Amino acid sequence: MTSGAIKKQGFLYNLLVTHIFFPFINRFLKSIVDKSKEALYVHVTPTGHVSKYGSGGTKNSVTMFIDNPIHFCWLMILDEKMGLGEAYMAADWRAEPNPTEFLKLLIRAKKEKAASRKFSQKPKATLMATAIGVLLSFVRKVTAIINYIQHRIRDNTVAQSAKNIEELEKAQLKKIDALIDMLDLSKDDKVLEIGCGWGAFAIRAVQRSGCQWTGLTISREQLALGKERVKDEGLEDKIELKIQDYRLVEGSYTRVISVEMIEAVGHAFLPQYFQIISDRLVPGGKAVIQAIICPDAYYEKYSNSSDFIKKYIFPGGHMPSLGAINAALPCDLQMGEKRHIGRHYATTLDHWYRFLGSIVGKSSEKLKLSVTSTGDEVDFEGQGNLNNNELAHPVTMFIHNPIHFCWLMILDEKMGLGETYMTGDWTAEPNPTEFLKLLIRAKSKLFLGLLLSFKN
C-alpha cells in the first residue's frame, strides 16, 4: 500500500464498503473486463476484499488497488465520464505493474467486447474521455518540463542523463527534418508558422533552406526564449517571431506550417481556420498540419463526452477527425499526403518517461511541480511528483489507436482549376459558368458564416 492509501477501521465502514460501494465498483469493472481473456485483480485495500475479472491467469495480469472506495464511487456517481480520471488524480486508486498496463488491459477488453457487439457504450465513453484527457495532460506537462529542465536544473542530474537527452534531441531533429522535407522548402519560400513554440522548427528550417520565416505565438514565455535562440543562431534577418492571433495575420506565404495547434481551434471554427490558411497561401502554395486526431468512428461520441479535458486539461480544446477536416476545407484547398506517426509518438513518450524518471531518481531537488495556466504563462508549484506513473499513460493511447497522430499536407489549388480547364482536364454541365457561380455562392455563404461567428 502506498502512502496515499487510506486505511479504514470499523464495522459501519466495512458494511458500507462491502454491501453498497463494492457492488457498484464490481458492476463497473465487470461491464468492461469480465469477458476478457486476460486477468484484472482488484484489491479494495481498506477491507482486504479481492476480486478477479477476466479468464486469464496470474501471468501478465494487472492489479488495481482501490485505496479509497467511498470517494472513488462518489466521483464515479457524480460523473462517470470524469470520475475515473478524477479518482486517479485524488489518489483513490493505483495499479501494478503500472497504470499504463491497466489502461492497455481496459482498451484490449473494450476491443474484444466491441468485436462481439456486446460492449456497453457508457463505459466506452468514460474510457475514451479519461484516456484522451490523460494524453493531453501529458503533452502539456512535457512542454513545461522541457523548459524547466533547460532553465532550472544545473546539478549533475542533467550531465548524468546527457546521453538520454542527446538521443531525444536527435530524434526530435529527425522528426523536424521529415516535416521540412514534406514542406519542400527552398530559399525562395516565405513561410508562416501558426504556433511557433520555442522556435526550434523555425531555426532548423531556415538553416537548411535559407527561407524567410514568420512565427506566431500567444505565449510571452515562448516568444522570449524563441527570440533568444534565433539571436544566438544569428538568424534575426531571416526569422521573425511575434505575439499575434493567427486570425489577424496578413500577407501572402508560399508555405504554412502548424504543429499541434489545430487542437485549440475547436470544431465550430475549423472552416475559419482553413479559410485563413487558404487566404494566406499564394496560388499553388502548400500547408502541413501536425494534429492529434480522433478516428471518425469515435468523433461524435468524443465531441459530446470530452468534459474531463475541458474541465482539467485544456479548456475549449478539441481534437478534429479527418472527416471533420475534409468537411472544413474551402473549395480551393485539397487534402494531399497523410502520414500516421502514432506508434513513433508512443516510442517518443516512452523515452521521455524513462528520461524524466532517471532525472527524478537522481535529482537532489526531487523535481516536484505542477503546471497551471495563468493567461499565457506557466507557473511551477511544488505540488506533484513527476515520478508518478501518470506520465506513462499516453503511450497506451498510441499503441492501441483510440486516437491518432498525423501529418497532413494541404494543397492550394486556386490557380489549378482554371489552368486544368484550359488544358481540357475537366468540363461542367450545363456549362463552366454555372459551375463557377455555384463555387462563388458557396464561398459567400462561408464568408457570411465567419462574419456571424465574429459577431457572436
TrEMBL record:
In its keyword annotation, does this UniProt entry include Transferase?
yes
InterPro entries reported in the protein's UniProt record: CFA/CMAS, MeTfrase_dom, SAM-dependent_MTases_sf
GO terms for molecular function, please?
transferase activity
Q: Which residues form a coiled coil?
A: none
Domain (Polyketide synthase-like methyltransferase): residue spans on this chain: 149-396
- Any Pfam family matching the protein: CMAS
Membrane found in the keyword field:
no
The domain of life is Eukaryota
The alphabetized UniProt keywords are: Transferase
Q: Known PANTHER family for this protein?
A: CYCLOPROPANE-FATTY-ACYL-PHOSPHOLIPID SYNTHASE, FATTY ACID C-METHYL TRANSFERASE
User: By what name is this protein known?
Assistant: Polyketide synthase-like methyltransferase domain-containing protein
